[in-house]
Amino acid sequence: MKVPREYIYLPDAAVMVVELASREKTYGQNWNIPGSGIISGHDIVRLAQKAAGRSKPVMALGRVGLSLIGLGVPVMKEIVEMLYLTEEPLILSRQKYVERIGPVVATSFEEGIKLTIKELELRGSRGEYIFLEKSN
Fold it and tell me: For residue 129, what pLDDT is reported?
């Protein structure tokens, strides 16, 4: 939760992937789809709590906790194997995309989290997600 890393707002990624897919010269190459910068897990939680208008306790699960959950939820075993990606900052190069395609679409973390919370609350109010706590 302390190590800053790059995340991407999925609607931004979708725009960039469609842009790449629409250009034949991009096929057969590796591309990074970068986000708007780096952010720590603590900052994501802070922004999410601000956007939701409520503060719930959040606890990071380490390797042992995730392994125990993995006993009942097999996909969590895969998460444990990928934890090495969270031990150092992860920043994707945007150079190739910018040089060959153009500007990177990058919604700020604050805006992306706010829009995501709003969408989740909307879906929850329609009964699409029963795990969401409805605000009064």
Answer: 57
